[in-house]
Specification:
four-stranded antiparallel β-sheet, alpha/beta, six-stranded mixed β-sheet, globular, single chain, 12 strands
Length: 274
């Protein structure tokens, strides 16, 4: 299933954050969305998920305008992990995961044994099987993130959109989640995830989308997109990019800022109480 945008504009109300977007998110590919804070990555993901309207152009899910589809139909085809990790109060981890099956059930149906077993399997994939009966309010931030990812997994959609899926995770489960994203793509899913770590994006993703300055500045392989001039244009700061033995090392190299240094000195001054 293909998710496409033609001459798309995304934003809020009359404020356009990204414009002239031509995207084709194809199955079987793990795609990374990168760019500076405030560039519109989360807004783009919300729009692609059908959570907020596209301000212009065309947004098509398998050839159909996503805005014309019932919300339940979209949820059977597109799973979306937002950056705002709100969890329903008063539920266990297992119950939250089962909520991912709601789009597939009629209003009068309840989860059956097979779906409960599937929920347990999804929790196991994320290392949360022993926490299934714990209230989500008793879990750490990283554990809650893994519960939400398990809910995405049980939704069994062909398109998966993840906004910072590695946030709050330790290095082990960061690697597990990125490996899972690749496995989902290799299994024929369309996977788009936003990441702040550019080297992680280079290692995990087959393709990258770079946004900045209100535009899509680059799309292609990590080698094509993680190019110094493109990164400097997007982030507005100097970058160092090194390529060796099939890997890409990327680091921001901000210049010294005399005004910033003076402000820090002022903040750090010891002042006597009046």
């Amino acid at each position: 299933m293909e998710l496409t945008m033609e001459k798309g504009r995304v934003g809020y109300g009359k404020q356009v954050i990204l414009a002239d977007l031509d995207l084709s998110l194809e199955p079987g590919i793990c795609i990374g969305l990168i760019g500076p804070n405030g560039a519109g990555k989360s807004t783009l993901l919300r729009t692609l998920a059908g959570v907020q309207p596209c301000l212009g152009g065309k947004l098509l899910l398998d050839g159909q305008p996503i805005g014309a589809l019932p919300r339940s139909a979209v949820s059977r085809k597109v799973a979306y992990l937002p950056q705002d990790r709100e969890l329903p109060f008063g539920y266990t981890a297992g119950e939250v995961v089962l909520m991912g099956r709601y789009p597939h059930l009629a209003w009068y149906q309840q989860e059956n044994k097979q779906e409960r077993e599937l929920a347990q399997a999804c929790l196991t994939v994320l290392g949360m099987e022993k926490e299934a009966e714990r209230p989500v309010t008793a879990l750490s931030g990283g554990q809650r993130q893994r519960v939400l990812l398990a809910r995405i997994l049980i939704q069994q959609t062909p398109v998966i959109l993840l906004d910072e899926p590695t946030a709050e995770l330790d290095p082990v489960y960061e690697a597990v989640v990125l490996q899972l994203c690749r496995m989902l793509a290799q299994g024929g899913r369309t996977v788009l995830l936003s990441l702040h770590d550019l080297e992680l994006a280079a290692r995990c993703c087959d393709r990258l989308l770079l946004v900045g300055g209100g535009r899509l500045l680059g799309q292609g392989t990590p080698g094509e997109v993680l190019e110094r001039t493109l990164l400097e244009r997007a982030y507005g700061a100097p970058f160092c990019v090194r390529r060796e033995e099939g890997s890409i090392q990327v680091a921001a190299c901000p210049e010294r800022d005399a005004q910033r240094e003076e402000l820090v000195k002022k903040i750090l001054e010891n002042r006597e109480e009046p």
